[in-house]
Design a protein that fits this description.
It is elongated and about 85 Å long. It has helices at 12-23, 39-47, 57-65, 69-81, 84-93, 113-126, 178-185, 205-209, 229-232, 257-268, 287-301, 306-309, 316-325, 339-350, 361-364, 406-424, and strands at 3-8, 28-31, 52-53, 98-100, 105-108, 130-132, 137-143, 146-151, 154-163, 190-196, 200-201, 214-224, 241-249, 253-255, 275-280, 352-355, 358-359, 367-372, 377-378, 383-384, 390-392. It has 2 domains: 3-194 and 368-424, FAD/NAD(P)-binding domain (3-Layer(bba) Sandwich), CATH 3.50.50; 199-359, no CATH class. The protein is an alpha+beta fold. It contains 16 helices and 21 strands.
Amino acid sequence: MQYDLIIVGAGAAGLFAAARAAECGCRTLLLEKNNQAGVKILMSGGTRCNITHATDQLGIAAAFAKFDRKQADFLRSSLAALPPERVIELLEAQNVRTKVEDTGKIFPVSNKAIDVRDALLNRAIDYGAVIQVNQSVQSVRREADAFILDTVAGSFTARRLLITSGGQSYPGCGTTGDGYGWARQFGHTIVNPVPALTPVTTDEAWVRDLKGITLPDAALSIVRYDPAREVTGYSAKQFLDTRRSSLLFTHFGLSGPAALDISRVITRDRDRSQLRLVCDFLPQTGFEQFQTQLANAFRDGGRKQVGSIMPEFGPKRLAETSLACCEILPETRAAEVSKKQVRRLAAFLKACIIPISGTLGFKKAEVTAGGVSLDEVDSRTMQSKLIDGLYFAGEVLDIDGPIGGFNFQAAFSTGWLAGQSAASSG
């Protein structure tokens, strides 16, 4: 069979692209190296699949702009072509009901990622796209007006080629950066890929001892080490980035949305040993206000032990750790705590400085920062500016946003626009 379009990579972008291209009358072949489509979809959101976020296309763009204005501007055309509400409509038309959680994240009501994957897969098949798995592409070349792809099973030819093979995050899913090599082969620039949305590691023993503790609201900031500031404290002017969300203490360091979102700054920095986290475990209260609350609690506590008062300000284990790190015995009477000790406790809970040893890298990264340079791709069509008939979509591009369904939305939208553009290019 002769194909108009070959798509490489049956992930979020590839499945949307295949369905849209086929819907537009394009003879479409989707190749996947794994033994099934959408492997990363199946793993996402703890196997629940955070589909998108409860906002409109402008809200999605604004979220990306907090990371990178250039990426936000690049996404405007694709988000206009396929906004979040349209994604939900398409899934619900495939009998996948959705729900919005308190965080704004949108999941399937079933809490099963496989329902999302199957809906996207079936939609592509229903429109006539041909999907072949276990098709690892060995080489890509262009001869005359055609792209020729050699796989483990044979060769395939089409006039147009769309690369949706992903980045390097979760390499166990088959996303091992194959698309970068093909893009370079056609003259494209690759912005150095680094892990993003990956857990942060530290050698601080007390952090690891708190494993399993979740703070529903915490603010993390990144600063560059300054010996003088270790005593006087860092100001907002020194912050390289700040993220506020839930935070999880783990046996290796920190995870949860706040840590994952800020990890991009760490992985992009060439001298990570000089980076520090400034952690505000109680961001809903200002420093001076919290210090006053703490002082009043101790004054009113009188003969009570401080160990029984501190849990009023956070999880018991964190309260115990704060006392230990500030060298205050938990059996100390509240009225005996000095002003200096109150300030130390306030500083620990409001501006705790944690050295960073690194991250868990690509192995646990939810997305890749870096990829095919956006300067060389037409955002209105997703076609290469260097090679006619060559398209890119999804994580293979230099696009990465915050946690919360934003990256899936970017993949869906760029895939949709690429499939539509390729189908209409004649």
